[in-house]
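Annex B. Sample input.
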Amino acid sequence: MIERIQEQKNQNLIRTGLLLIGMLILLVAVGWLLIGPQGMIWMGAFGLLMAFLSFQIPTETIMRFYRARPLTMQQAPYLNRIIQQLSRKAKLKKEPQLYYIASNSVNAFATGRQSDPGIAVTHGLLRQLSAKEVTAVLAHELSHVAHNDMRLKGLTNIMGRMTRSFSLIGQILLFINLPLLVMGEETFPWLGILLLIIAPTLSTLMMLAISRTREFDADLEAARLTGDPNSLADALLKLDYINRSSAMRPLTHRIPRWMSTHPQMDERIKRLRELAPRYEPRISWEALDRFLRQSPFFRQTGFWI
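Annex B, continued. Sample output.
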């Protein structure tokens, strides 16, 4: 079973690498077409600087933007205990800081670097999902931290923005020089014109494909960390049901799968169900239950987080 998981993870890694190389080639081709090799050196240095600066934004600052507040061990003993166990299994040097967002939306996300990670959960998620399902979702988000997926996302965003900027500048220059092109006084390769037109779309599609691949990989890692693929599958099923019932569902339902940041729920759930018979849960629910019931916060409120 471990071999099968590793094989799927290797396939995801290869696909991510190829897509990332594709985005880089596209960026270099468009940049080379417009500003030449010397200009690309300067733009590459600028892109690296932007990437470095974006990675230095503290997690607390990002969470403040979402109006999230930290959850301490006293406030949420269960969730923090789970984060501790999962972090040890994932061999993280630093446990992610938990944050709470007072929103009825059912959502969770990870942000920051491995040296400063954070995971946010919404009020709706804690109320709608069971303890096991929330644990599986936390394992999924922690997997993004372990794989440095936030850094990869930041890098692909910068590459995508640079590609779109080059393309837009190129299209403006073409429009300005259109009369000269028509009269034949200035030449520009038609292949270059086509590249300037389709480059932003291709870059966006590759960025979305990378995002979907990382989601599959996070599902696999969450199954490995918890030993309970069914709980994550149940959580995804519940999330899908809630989304189908929401007012936004008619809008999101029309989005093609190749334009989505996440894979289709049916496919994710199917892959997790196929793993389930070969797993035994690794989370000690009995020990966690004893710890929870000894918590003063639980005795006062009865709230399981």
